[in-house]
Every structure is written in C-alpha cells, then in structure tokens.
C-alpha cells in the first residue's frame, strides 16, 4: 500500500484529503480491514481488479467490483469493514477520503453504491464519471463540496483534457507510461495541477489508466487523526473514547466474515493542530 495523500508538500486537493493506492497484489495478501469508525468525512472505494465486501453499522452489505463506486458518508459517526472476497485472484484498489465542510460534517451517516456510472469520450479516450461532472456528464453520486472524480482510460498518444479552472486537480497514474507538462509521472504517482488550468496535455507512451481527483480549494483547516477528521483535539479525544467503549455514536455492531473490531490507538503526547 502506498499513501500518496497527505504528502509533506500537499495536504489536500480540493476536499480530497487521503489517497491510498493498494496493489496490484496477489490475493494471498488480500485486504482485511475489520470494523473501524469514521467521523467528518466521506470514504470512496474504487477497484481496478478484485472484489471487496463492505459492511457497515447502518446494516449495509455491499460487494463492490471494478468500475463501481462505494461512497460512505460518515458524518457524525459510522463504522464499517472492508474485506476482499476469497474468489479474488488479484486486488488493485484505491481508497479515498473527502473532508466534509463545517456545516455538514456532523450530518447523519449514509451509504450508497453505484454500479452503473456514466461514461464520456474525452481527448481520444474514455472517462467514467465517479463523482461530480466531467466533460459535460454527471455522476449520480451524492456530494457536497464542489468536486470531481473520474477514471480515465487513454490510448497511446497525446490527449488534451479539459479541466475546471476553479478546481485544483490530482492525476493518479494506475497503469501505463504517462508524462504531463514534460514530466514523467510513474505508476502510483500523483501529479498535482493547481487552480487556473483550463486544460492539460497527457502524453501516453502506452495505453494508460488514470484517476482524476479535483475540487474547489477546501478553505478550512482540518485535523486528521487515525480514521477521524475534526477541527480540534477535544473532538478527536471524544470520538476515540467513544469508539473504544463501543458507544452508539458509531451505530449498531455488525457481523462480517472475520469479526472483531480495530481499537483506536493511543493519542500522541503532543497537542494535535489542524492544518
Ligand atoms: Mn474505513
């Protein structure tokens, strides 16, 4: 697993605050993430290969397959588990978090699954629109802060991709030999594009797959600790204690294939600061 966001020099891209890129790996070291909580964010699970079963404290049970979207809104509090199915031979996945804006971050939790996301032609390739609007095509997924997410499948060659100049963007290369702005972007690397760009050229030496993440600059400092996004340490301390005592804040307990739950670690001995 490689964590590409947050990075020392890049905390967020719009509301996107966490990007974990997993695999491709053989199933022998498949993914087992037992029950754990979230607050103040939305999680996005996106697969390139394999199958993962999601369960949560709202009672959702949902298998996700490549090209589908699992979007969980933690809001005030939710717990979930994600476990790769044993039928899966290889697993290749991206886990993303979106910070919720101040006025929404304590909203009721929710979960949605989208199996049929719209496709659109773009710059000599095709895009699947995961969240928001891209190339004039809208995803049905629920979102709040202005943002976009799309999976781009580009053939070898040079592609001019139109962007919303009010958004900052990140391009995560998941397959292929790609350069942007005369700079090679290796597989698993994230290329950042600041606001103000109305388009960008993507040069592909081979067929390529990229994830595009964008959004209006977030405009608030956030405090990220473990699986929580808050604004100050008191909120983190309270959420941690509530999870470790299995408080109903995080909904009903639920069963999954592995059982158990992941306790929150100890807090550090320094005061956590939003940034
Ligand atoms: Mn999670």
Task: Please supply descriptive tags for the structure shown above.
single chain; 6-stranded antiparallel β-sheet; globular; binds manganese (II) ion
Would you give an account of this structure?
The chain is mainly β and 275 residues long. The chain is built from 1 helix and 24 strands. It has a 6-stranded antiparallel sheet with strand order 1-2-9-4-7-10, with no helix packed on it. A 6-stranded antiparallel sheet has the order 11-12-15-22-17-20, with no helix packed on it. Strand 18 and strand 19 (183-185) form a beta hairpin. The chain is globular. 41% of the residues are buried. The mean pLDDT is 94.
Classify the beta-strand content into a percent band.
over 45%
Task: Please count the helical segments.
Answer: 1
H/E element sequence: EEEEEEEEEEEEEEEEEEEEEEEEH
Low-confidence stretches: none
Mean pLDDT: 94
Helix content: under 10%
Question: Sheet bearing the most strands, described?
Answer: 6 strands, antiparallel
Bound ligands, named by name, code or SMILES: manganese (II) ion
Q: What class do helices, strands and sheet pairing give?
A: mainly beta
- Alpha-carbon Rg, integer: 18 Å
* Backbone shape: globular
Number of strands: 24
Report the end-to-end length measured between terminal Cα atoms: 24 Å
Strand order of the largest sheet: 1-2-9-4-7-10
